[in-house]
Amino acid sequence: MNLGLRNRRALVMGGTKGLGRSIADALAEEGAVLTISGRDQGRLDEAAAALAALGASGASGIVADVASGEAMDRLADAAVAAMGGVDILVLNHGGPPQCIASEMTEADLVKWFQHIVVSPIRIANRLLPAMRERGWGRIIVVGSTGMQQPIPNLALSNTLRASIWAWLKTLSAEVAPDGVTMNVLAPGTILTDRTRDSAAALARRKNISQEEALAERLAEAAKQIPAGRVGMPEEYGPMGAFLASDRAGYITGSMIRVDGGRIRGMV
Ligand SMILES: NC(=O)c1ccc[n+]([C@@H]2O[C@H](COP(=O)([O-])OP(=O)(O)OC[C@H]3O[C@@H](n4cnc5c(N)ncnc54)[C@H](OP(=O)(O)O)[C@@H]3O)[C@@H](O)[C@H]2O)c1
Fold first, then answer.
1. Which among 12, 13, 17 is the best mutation to test ligand 1's pocket, defined by most ligand atoms within 8 Å of the CB?
2. Which residue lies with its CA nearest to atom 34 of ligand 1?
3. Ligand 1 atom index nearest CA of 95
4. Where is pLDDT greater, at 13 or 153?
5. Per residue in 108-138, pLDDT tens?
6. Mean pLDDT score across all residues of the chain
7. E-assigned strands of 64-188?
8. Which mutation among 25, 123, 192, 239 tests ligand 1's pocket best, with the greatest number of atoms within 8 A of CB?
9. What is the spatial distance between Cα 243 and Cα 181, in angstroms, rounded to a whole number?
10. pLDDT of residue 202
């Protein structure tokens, strides 16, 4: 299937590693032009070189911390300057810390509202008018299955992602007549540094090695997953490339799960 992505211009936020990188990799393999963002120029340059080697028609990295709204404006403008425009925008960032709902603090809520809701909306608003004028655009939110079934111990994520989902669902209807699609790509448990870092916390708590803690965490997660295992990043990114493609032009306002069957409800 030709996805028609050659020379399409994509900005993938949080594109140095993990899920954002898996989408960037898949887009690179299809010959897209890429700008990725993250917090460190060295990591960005390394990832951009790898994307070029995979087949990207161009790849560069721009430092932009989602903690800052102004950084989102600068990122949008720099990506347009680097690529001549942005056709595909992947909204992604590092995940919030674990916490239970009864212990969620106001300070954490405000801080992570900026990362998960305000900054993504700000950069989308800056790039959307040109997509609508051109009559073609794709916005993909890296979400979570917690948007359909709250995940215990991830109260901040559950609470705030509900907001970005409501925004996307509302706006997708407004921009659909202009050829712009907006979808959530919701991962179950995918093995990334975020998963490994959560094992580090478990290792400290139980006084076991990080390898033991990771094995325990993966085995525990696998029990909840019909596929019997956690997913790998390369099983997630290709669906992002498909959603970004011409072929997915009639898919909008949707949440697509990549979760090995974890969500059992008929949603
Ligand atoms: N992995 C899973 O199983 C899973 C499941 C559900 C939801 N999610 C969500 O999916 C998102 C991505 O997760 P992941 O597993 O890919 O995490 P990851 O491997 O830790 O990657 C996070 C990416 O975001 C960048 N980043 C982190 N903090 C940033 C900030 N303040 N400003 C700009 N960029 C930042 C990182 O780049 P630098 O470090 O280079 O800045 C990196 O490229 C998170 O929101 C996570 O909660 C993940």
1. 17
2. 38
3. 47
4. 13
5. 999 999 999 999 999 999 999 999 999 999 9
6. 97
7. 88-91, 137-142, 180-187
8. 192
9. 9
10. 86
Handedness of CA 237, 188, 247, 141 (dihedral sign): negative
Query: From ligand 1's centre to the CA of 156, what distance in Å?
Result: 15
Q: Among 3.40.50.720, 3.40.190.100, 2.120.10.30, 1.10.1330.10, what is the CATH number of 9-190+232-258?
A: 3.40.50.720
- The verdict on pTM exceeding 0.85 is yes
Q: Is 65 close to ligand 1, i.e. is its CB under 6 Å away?
A: yes
Domain with CATH 3.40.50.720 in the chain: 9-190+232-258
The rounded Å distance from CA 172 to ligand 1 centre is 24
> Per DSSP, which regions of 15-104 are E strands?
33-38, 58-63, 88-91
pLDDT in tens, 186-210: 999 999 999 999 888 889 889 999 9
Grade residue 159 by pLDDT with cuts at 50, 70 and 90.
very high
For 44-49, what is the mean pLDDT? 98
Q: Of how many residues is the chain composed?
A: 267
Nearest CA to ligand 1 atom 14: 18
Contact (Cβ atoms closer than 8 angstroms) between residue 73 and residue 3: no
Burial class (CB in 10 A: 0-12, 13-18, 19+), 220: exposed
Average pLDDT value for residue range 171-177? 98
